[in-house]
Write a structure and sequence with these properties.
about 525 residues, about 65% helix, disordered C terminus
Amino acid sequence: MRNGLDQWGHVLPFLRQWEVGHGLAPEEDAGRDIARSGFAPCLVTLLRLSAPPRFGADAGSFPPWLLAGLARTGHLPLAAELALSTVDELGRAERLLAVVRAAADAGDVHGAQALTDSITLRQCRDQALVGQVSAWARAGERDRAVALAETVRYPHHWAVTWALLAKAVADGGDTRAALAFADRAEEHVLRSDPSAAKVLVLLLEVADLVGDRDRADDLADRLEDWARSRGRRDGGFDRDRPRPLATVLVRDLHRGDLDRLDALLRRPRRSPLDAWVMAVVLASAPASTDVETALALADRTQILLGACATSSGEAIALCTAAARMLALHGQVERAAAFADAMHAPDVREERQTQIVAELARGGDTGRAEELARAIGDGATRGHALVAVVRELARQGETDRAARLADTIDDPWLRDHALVAVVPEAARHGQRERAEALTRTIVHRATRARALAELAEVLTESSEPSEARRLAVRAAALDGWPKVLPLLERLAPDALVATADAWTGGRDGEPAGRADGRHQEGTRAPAQADGADR
């Protein structure tokens, strides 16, 4: 993930509106005197008192994140019970699937397997089985994983099941078995199947892992052929799930090979290469890429840009990616030229901030600060300075970062910048100073966010008592949702308390027992009545 404003994206204005709307923090934080020693029961009690009595209109509609959290923290029977309380069959199956996946990820493959049998919809059960296959393999139960793979019902799941098994075994270092399972996956790959590309990408990863260069190159060529068969029909830019052709080109780039890219550029009308694919390639260019390679990619980007309308979303994505890559390598003038190619002033201003952020990320924080201060628009200048503050903090220059944050005129942007400094100060051994910085943040919700991030750092550094104390402060300032991401590690029983509060208990009893007595064994509840569908 890129550092800086990228992790907020277009959410930043909504975050600002939300946190400014919650008002200023009180001079003395509510909760500063609560749980001085950080006992877990204090946090659990606070959450029990502040959680809403029900989730939505239907008491049985529990959010998947709560069920998954319960499963990961050893409360699998309770998670299953709540999932089964969902009224409609599809919702029930989807929640059970989420619980199964969470339990398997947490290492409870036996409990996850038992719960799989409670899923009555065969499509969801098949999806659960696919995940179970790789989970058993990673747990060292390969024979059981193979036997389970043979029970997957629907043919469109067969190829991905064996590919995932091959990947799990390859990760474990067994080259021969990984290739054998990869062969099984290839037997079921259908060119017309929408999941074929996903399978081929997995098999490419397996081939690279086991060092079979010829096999990997063949799979890369097949992925290119698959992309050619679809042309440019398969959607836009998605950083989390890049398209298959982008995967192949990124692989080539990391090997220093631009031949495939050049060949695709020579066929502009028949090529599956478009701006979205190229944007992924540019965004994936590692910081270790030399300047010559970065400039070569920029030249190729310019060729592709000539086929785009300058005001289109494609052109904006392409120019943005090129500008950021060049700025990361210190090529500010060339980066600015790509930013200036976009006609909309508001877009150019946003790209100015990103150029500053990438220049700072590349290590030239001094020049990045100069560029940020030279920006004429006040709001754009403030956002650019926040980007520099975040990078300075990440590099351990927390004193300089805090001083720079203090020069930001906009009160909320200043607070937002300090949120980045607080956890980094703690990571660099300045825990007391980090907590003192939180008290200089003037907006209530922003201060709570900083406290929650500081609590997370202390959790990582094995200071759970201090982390719980800070989590209580954050919750007291801005409500219990602020500390939900921390609950699994800080106070797992708080998830049970949240479930109790939402349901109000059943028949006068709480939804789960914090003492763990409801957890004897991990057997799943009996399968629901009705024919298997």
